[in-house]
Fold this protein.
Amino acid sequence: CVAQYRNHGYTPNDADLAQIVVGKDTKDTVRNAIGVPQSEGLLADSAWYYVRSQFKHLGAYAPKEVDRQVLAISFDTSGRVSNVERYGLEDGQVVTLSRRVTVSNVQGTTFLKQLFGNLGQVSAEQLLQ
Amino acid sequence: CSEYAPERDLEGYTAEEIYKRAEYEITTKDFDSAAQYFAEIGRLYPYSSWSKRALIMEAFAYHRGSDYEQARLAAQRFIDFYPADDDTAYAHYLLALSYYDQIDDVGRDQGLTFQALQALRVVIEQFPDTEYARSSVLKFDLAFDHLAAKEMEIGRYYLKRKHYSAAVNRFRVVVEQFQTTQHTAEALHRLVESYLALGLTEEAQSAGAILGHNYQSTEWYKDSYALLTGRGLEAKSLGDNWLSAVYRQMVRGEWL
Amino acid sequence: QEFQFSTVEIQGNGRVSTESILNFAGIGRNQGVSGGELNDAYQRVLASGLFESVEFIPQGSKLLIKVTEFPTVSRISIEGNSKVNDDVLSSVLQTQVRRAYAPSTAEQDAAAMAEIYASKGQLAATVTPRIIRRNDNRVDVVFEVTEGKNVEVERLTFVGNRQYSNARLRRVLETKQAGLLRFLVGRDTFAEDRVNFDKQVLTDFYTSRGFIDFEVLNVAAEFSRERDAYFLTFNIREGQKFSFGEMTTVSEIDGLDTADFQKEINIRSGQTYSPVAVENAIERIEILATKKGIDFLRVEPRVTRNDRERSLDISFALVRGPRVFVERIDIEGNATTLDRVVRRQFKTVEGDPFNPREIREAASRIRALGFFSDARVDARAGSGPEKVIVDVDLEETSTGSFSFGVNYSVSSGANLIASFSESNFLGRGQRLAFNLTTKLDDGNLSFNFVEPAFLGRDVAFGLSANYGFSAPIYADHESRDIFVSPSLTFPVAENARLRLNYKVGTNLLRNPDDNDLPATIQADVDAGEVFEQSLGYTYSYDTRRSGVNPNAGVKFEFSQDIAGFGSDVEYLRTTATVQGDTTLFNEEVNLSASIKGGMIEGRGGMDTRVSNRFFTGTSLIRGFEPGGIGPRDLDDTELALGGKFYAVASLETDFPLGLPEEYGIKGGLFLDHGALWGLDDASSAGGSEDISWRTVVGASVFLKTPIGPLRFNFTKALNKEDYDVEQNFDLTIATQF
């Protein structure tokens, strides 16, 4: 089989990144140079993150993440760029997700409700064997 | 069943007789024809004191008959005609209920939830001291929780498929805009999972710290603590083998 | 001046309560009120729309408010309308029963109703509202309608058309002349907006054939003397026909070589210019860009026109588009369908660059699910200038059928059927179907389940099981099949999918009425119940749906099933299909050619059983009864024995019959040329052993009906064996319509 590759997310290319100078650029100049961050941290002054990953889709296997670039731009208290770091796929931990779910109070449609919802509908396939 | 119950022309009956007949219909649980009788009163005797009573009862009947669309129309008509009546609070409440009762499982339509929230907020703010306000507050929280559950479900969808930054954004929405709901603890744990998977350990620790600070006693904190201290989650005794995954996801429709 | 009121008195209100009027007025007790505020209060009470007239009369410290309420509407009726029924007319009504009656709204209703008549070509229709006073300040509202004569369009003529004849242009336009089925069709009446639509259709027709300077100068409409028909004359200027000159690609993004993109442009210079070709070229370039992982690429075609050679040189400029991201994908309206079933149709993930083409493809995948009567996917501004939110508004339709009843089919007579099928089981996108059919000659219970996203992946898990008797009409024996068959289908390349399946079960051939059977079939019956187990795969490559060229494509399918590994029956069965589809005359005519072949060979020295051999049904070659051709026991029983090999070539086309589309009728022609032959040892059967080709020509009529597209086939066999059993008429479900 032939594997197909799909790219997700976005990290700026090196040319744009070179314009950012540690200690001088603020959030606005960073946004103009390389665009809006993909996601941020929880706290107000947390870093900006740009994530780009490539997935390999091969036959019946689950899509596998084969390449990931994480660009972290952290800011100091005065809002100036304090550090620019790069992480790759190898820095990420393999995390087993917990299956538990906070159950919400609303129940879904039941089989019988759906069954009798269709009573009487006829489709062409049934009539003509 | 006839679409328009009272075929015989009711011109001859007084408003009170029709009202009694409509109330009888309610006791026999035939809500649709009860609503139509109440409507007849409004048509034949618009100026009698009965027509005001009949209009609110019409909305009530439609709502009990779970014909929510009609219930909303009737309630709205009552609010337009009698904006300052003591039943107006009940009319607003009926309006909110007819949205709220249509909210279905979390995986589904959230358009209705927004409308329910808005209608409930009207009841809570304009009629604060009525008993409708108290039960509206309860329903408001449940609807609000339903919205948070929807964000969580989409977050888990992306988390399972390893799209961590998309998952982080969804869980951040829950933590920032839905703090009062029961989902915040899980959202924080999912953030710990996502940040660790991305290799951003300080962010994971800060999320874990918030979780520890506010939700120390929850299962979620135990899971996060295990992840952050590097021991990782032990596979559950139920067995996490391939076949049980197929059963859970295909037959029971669970997410993982 | 300044007022101060200690008491307010209201006169003339019946239905509207005093508190409500005070509420509208909003004047507090003993509160200083200026002249302006008093006027605002007056305006507010009037604006409530409940009162015919309102008067504010200040009397010292008392304010007297006099109101006369609008009467309430007791009943609404519409009289005098025959061509348009009441529901259509009352749908535009603002006046409502039990609400206040306002003359202005009644006038608006009358105008809205006249508008409905005008859009249906009844320009002479008039509507006047009238009220009947009732007791207790109530009124009945009556809308009196007088309908004028219907206006038909009689003749369409064109001035200035040299390249294409009047008849050709008439066919292009939608406004039908008053044709033979006039009373049926409501479309050929004269309507302003449809003529503008026709102008657009004409312009598209010409520009797609290279006439880029085409223009409709004006449209003249004359009324016939009897005022029942219009003569439409389109005055057009065609201009010159242009063809493609030189195609180049230039890149404004540094470090991007244009060689691969240049190869994607499949326009030959000299080819007639058409905007569709340019659009296709842009599409191919964008698809290549996404494959190469280049984000935010936009293609700008820059056209230079040289009038002397009447050719257009196009340079495709690769430009970096704006950096826009998908912030969120919000799905609404999915009442029973789970969010993930819709979300997994998107290849775009939240946070990805915004690629309009991917969103459009996802939208068509969502519609292809068949769960929604309407699925609108559009992007709106997000929380920032560089962010977009994709909104998916869905309207669910019924996705299941659950019926008892009797159905009739040409080949096997009347059957009792009980069937349940749900293509969106519990909203999870799973397909589940039970079928119980008790035909005259056999009963059948079948179960079918498909999970399209097994474990959340792009893998379809299928499980089907069957317990059933069947005695096809061409056989005198009965066969009972019990089997279970799981399968997995997954993509293996761009447009290719592989299906692995395992089938295990038993087959029993019986001769209950002790008919006289041919020797080979009698041997199979004597073998009693046999255990059958097989492994198989099907490789299918299909570019018709997702290929770059939307209206042409190739389908290739190759499948093999190996029975053995401890099964009583051992064989190798191979089938293959190659099919090419294309459309001609800009997607009006469909043309498809296909070649099908199949062979089955016993393994381990075993002969093939009649239940495994091929019997031709109408799905293979048309014009014959099922089992109508192929090896036959000619000596005494004349029964079909089935063949080990078959090969069929067929050519098929369907085309509009010139009738307006509303009838939903299309015609078609087809030619089937094939044969079914081969037995293990021909001697014992006396059937013919060598290959003899049958050729059949046929015509078909396609009809769209509420329960699905039907197809009527009329066939004539050109050459066949004298012992074949023909079938000249067949009614089936038209799959490709």
